[in-house]
Automatic annotation (TrEMBL):
One of its GO terms (molecular function) is catalytic activity. It comes from Enteractinococcus helveticum. It comes from the Bacteria. Residues 90-413 form the Endonuclease/exonuclease/phosphatase domain. Residues 356-388 are annotated as: Disordered. SUPFAM superfamilies: DNase I-like. Keywords: Signal. This is Endonuclease/exonuclease/phosphatase domain-containing protein. Residues 1-24 form the signal peptide.
Length: 443
């Protein structure tokens, strides 16, 4: 499969230079009628709908670049993308609050500490397409715009802002009440009884940001696909008929988001899941959620049904990349079993770049990598074991795509002070790492 137009479009416009500031975004004044099933902060305006992704104003899309002299101690830590490469990344931002509307209220103005640190990490890697997980999306596009304008677009002494003219977010299953006792605690209600673990609808969900237009008319959302419709599913035997009927496969979301680059399409297959240990059925569900992407890449899986009523898998010749938080490690680290993720990584349909930790030159040769040889691929803390980590987040291009570079951005860990302060990003309670891959299509 050849995609020369996509290569040409990416050439020259994907530089990662710290000396190329991007103007802050200015949101347009248009809005649409709300069509979200979750509950925004009272008084907030929700502008997302089921068929459209967000787009900032023309000023952001046509942002000019000006030269900037950085401080002498500011050293780029990542090489820029090659001329024919597109940088795709995923990051678990761990931007979640206890109540609906709290995060949106904070992001409505600059200055929230953890959100600023997340923005610094994104500004360091500067992906062209970003699947941001672990972020409350209860306020829909308003929240996506607020984070884009007040944090991502705002630079500092050691970095420049980055603006995404296009983004997509929508209702997920996290925090949506099911009406059943799914966690088997004897009562109905609470985060364990939601369709996906969460205290309120939209908690710890997902946003896709892009520097290129999103084909909103062709987005496919599989979040409502019933778990019971998956052939040979792993639904526990003790589930009642009601529970089998109401529980979707996705604990958070599965989206196919087509990105348009000079007339060509890259399908971003974005997903996020709850932690396997969050519910009694978490392991079984996680296995099938990972297997879904394998089924989506097969030509004969007719059980797949999206939110528009369209049936069937991804087209055979489509260019794609799987990106998001799968919460499973092929080596068996972390709470999940390795079988499903191992089978996906061995699939002939995808390329596993096996991203390793990206360290600055000052760290090389100082014995900073962990003794565990698998840990260089790890992206997240083990929710069940203090101090342990596992590979939870993935950027997996299709087999027809060439990977020109890839990595895991090491930003510090509370368990080993030798990592603190790398890239000028202070350690925080968020021990997740960003995963990225530079891909060229048609090589």
């Amino acid at each position: 499969m050849q995609k020369p137009a996509l290569i040409a479009a990416a050439a020259g416009c994907l530089a990662l230079s710290f000396a190329t500031p991007i103007q802050a975004a200015t949101a347009d004044d248009t809005s649409t009628e709300p069509d979200l099933g979750y509950c925004p902060r009272p008084g907030s305006e929700v502008v997302a709908d089921s068929a459209q992704g967000g787009m900032l104003g023309d000023e952001a899309a046509a942002a000019e670049s000006t030269e900037e002299v950085l401080p002498a101690n500011s050293v780029p830590v990542l090489a820029g993308t090659q001329d024919n490469s597109l940088r795709v990344a995923t990051y678990n931002a761990a931007l979640s609050r206890d109540s609906a509307g709290d995060l949106f209220e904070e992001l409505s103005a600059p200055g929230t500490e953890d959100a600023t640190e997340v923005a610094r990490i994104i500004q360091t890697v500067r992906p062209d397409v970003l699947v941001l997980t672990g972020i409350d999306a209860d306020a829909g596009e308003n929240l996506a715009k607020a984070f884009n304008t007040n944090y991502l677009a705002v630079g500092g002494e050691d970095r420049t802002g980055v603006t995404y003219p296009y983004f997509y977010t929508h209702q997920t299953n996290a925090g949506v009440e099911s009406g059943a006792d799914l966690d088997r605690d004897g009562t109905i209600g609470g985060p364990g009884d939601a369709l996906g673990y969460g205290d309120f609808p939209g908690q710890s969900s997902m946003i896709v940001y892009s520097k290129y237009p999103i084909d909103t008319a062709q987005i496919r959302d599989f979040s409502s696909l019933p778990w019971k419709s998956v052939p040979d599913n792993s639904i526990p035997e003790d589930f009642t008929e009601l529970e089998r009927d109401i529980l979707p496969l996705s604990s958070v979301a599965h989206w196919d988001v087509p990105i348009e680059i000079d007339g060509e399409t890259l399908h971003v297959l974005a997903s996020a899941t709850e932690d396997v240990s969050a519910t009694p059925h978490g392991q079984a569900r996680n296995d099938d959620q990972i297997r879904f992407w394998q089924d989506y890449l097969e030509s004969d899986t007719e059980y797949i049904l999206d939110h528009r009523g369209n049936r069937g898998p991804l087209e055979d010749d489509a260019a794609f990349v799987i990106a998001g938080s799968l919460k499973a490690d092929p080596q068996g680290h972390g709470p999940a079993e390795p079988k499903a993720i191992s089978e996906l990584l061995k699939s002939d349909a995808i390329v596993d770049p096996q991203q390793e930790r990206t360290l600055p030159p000052t760290a090389l040769g100082r014995g900073v990598l962990p003794n565990n040889p698998d840990a260089e691929y790890h992206t997240a803390p083990d929710p069940d074991t203090d101090g342990e980590t596992y590979r939870a987040d993935y950027v997996l291009p299709g087999a027809d795509l060439s990977v020109t570079d890839a990595g895991v951005l090491e930003t510090g860990t509370a368990h080993n002070d030798v990592y603190r302060g790398y890239f000028g990003i202070p350690s925080s309670d968020n021990l997740h790492h960003m995963v990225w891959a530079d891909i060229a299509i048609g090589k």
